[in-house]
């Protein structure tokens, strides 16, 4: 009985660690980096921007704009 309890505690702890790591690994990606909310310098800019990144479930895409008068 004690062995089953220790095994249950071990499994519960391992699952908790896996969930903790997966939740804390979410990344916030700033779309376009320093370009801001403006017209991209060339047609394939955002295609090239995405090639250097790996997106996962739980990540956030943040779109920033420069403070300017339009």
UniProtKB/TrEMBL annotation:
Residues 1-25 form the signal peptide. Keywords: Signal. Transmembrane segments: none annotated. Gene3D superfamilies: Cupredoxins - blue copper proteins (2.60.40.420). SUPFAM superfamilies: Cupredoxins (SSF49503). PROSITE patterns: PROKAR_LIPOPROTEIN. This is Putative cupredoxin. It comes from Medicago truncatula.
């Amino acid at each position: 009985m004690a062995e089953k309890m220790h095994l249950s505690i071990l499994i519960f702890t391992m699952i908790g660690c896996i969930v903790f790591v997966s939740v804390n690994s979410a990344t916030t990606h700033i779309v376009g980096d320093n370009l801001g909310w403006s017209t991209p310098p060339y047609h394939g800019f955002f295609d090239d921007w995405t090639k250097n990144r790996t997106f996962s479930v739980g990540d956030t895409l943040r779109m920033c704009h420069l403070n300017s008068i339009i």
